[in-house]
Design a protein that fits this description.
This protein is mainly beta. The protein has one helix at residues 10-20; strands at residues 43-44, 59-64, 69-82, 85-96, 99-111, 116-127, 130-133, 138-139, 146-151, 160-162, 164-165, 173-185, 188-199, 208-213, 217-223, 226-233. It has a single domain, classed as YmcC-like fold, CATH 2.40.360.
């Protein structure tokens, strides 16, 4: 499931974000530019964007109705310093039939405008209980990687932006499809839902749709026949 940048001055950030992030684009295209400059002073200590709130200690449980795959997203009390920005650590655990398949630690921070940025992740894939790969791991500021936006402060249909940009490793892109949807999952009925279309030019057939509800965050992810739904919040 599924991680985001500020510029040397607030004015500079506003101009570049307008040109690069909010320009409508076809689902297969990339944002025109993505070269944000990071000023740690333009970030805040909490992540309270209503569509991507990170409450320390909170856990979200998801399940796929057509398989035995589950996802647990745990918002930790830990932080990590990346490019001088204090980020919040979020851990995602994917299991299939109760067996751990993947554990990812992602690092998020929110700017003063309310945009939530993804600063990198440490990923491990497992087979028979043993780690076998760290493919997809990256950190902003290392090997040309830069943060991406995971949730805009003011999403508008057509806005297209990088969610992560580590050349050749992680290049996820999102496009806002709608901002007034409604969805039903085992955890409840939601309105005012934001729907995004997400894909990576590094992977064929990577298109995924995600839905975010106000006050909750991610409630649904769909990829092909898979439908990972929010089951419970703890």
């Amino acid at each position: 499931m599924q991680p985001r940048k500020l510029f040397a001055s607030l004015l500079a950030w506003t101009v570049l974000a307008s040109l690069a992030a909010d320009t409508p684009a076809a689902a297969s295209s990339k944002p025109r530019e993505w070269a944000p400059e990071i000023d740690p002073l333009n970030f805040v200590s909490t992540v309270d964007n209503p569509y991507f709130p990170l409450v320390p200690g909170r856990k979200y449980r998801y399940a796929d109705a057509l398989s035995e795959e589950t996802l647990l997203i745990a918002m930790t009390m830990r932080g990590r310093l990346v490019m001088g920005v204090r980020t919040t650590v979020v851990v995602e655990t994917v299991k299939d039939r109760g067996e751990t398949r993947k554990i990812s630690e992602s690092w998020y921070a929110q700017d003063r405008e309310g945009n939530v940025w993804h600063f990198g992740e440490k990923t491990e894939e497992y087979e028979k209980g043993l780690p076998v790969s760290t493919d997809g791991s990256w950190e902003a500021g290392v090997d040309g990687a830069v943060p991406g936006i995971v949730m805009k402060a003011r999403p508008v249909p057509g806005a297209t932006y990088f969610q992560e940009l580590a050349p050749g490793v992680a290049e996820d892109i999102a496009r806002v499809e709608s901002v007034t949807g409604s969805e039903v999952t085992p955890s409840g009925t939601y309105s005012g839902v934001i729907k995004t279309r997400e894909w990576s030019p590094l992977e064929s057939g990577s298109i995924e749709f995600k839905c975010y509800a106000p006050g909750v965050g991610l409630i649904l992810g769909e990829k092909g026949r898979r439908r990972m739904e929010l089951v419970a919040i703890e």
